[in-house]
Here is the input.
Amino acid sequence: MDIRMPVLDGIAATSAVLALPSAPKVIVLTTFDADEYVVRALAAGANGFLLKDTPPADIVDAIARVAAGEPMLSPAITQQLIRQVTDAAPDGRAQQARERIGLLTERETEVAIAIGRGSSNAEIAAALHMSIATVKAHISHLFTKLDATNRVQVAITMHEAGLL
Here is the structure.
């Protein structure tokens, strides 16, 4: 779905498509990365938000991941949302984030930083020379230790702690 289209904009079209019985998953693919568009598209139910400069292989990977139930954001969009959330956060959050990061092993911290940079499990595995199963195990530990339920929350914690 694109943001700007003739007749009906992409956000309204996303809402309409997702209101259908047996609605498909929707990924927004656009050149517009303004906070307003990202938040409105996700609020409308989009399962992903990618920029058109995303490499074709990454778009294919995003489609597969969204089809499997995993939300997908371009790394630039993830960073943008993290900044938006943390800029509005109370001052004590940075200290709390640093305390939670202190519970992590060195390897878990490396995985958390990679998540914060928007890396996929496969990219983390390749960069850190470990198996995808090991990456998944580290992510599971991160969710528990950081009291997070998803990758975006891990990334926000890393940003608030000043590690991104």
User: Anything to note?
Assistant: The mean pLDDT is 85. The chain has two domains: 10-73, 83-160.
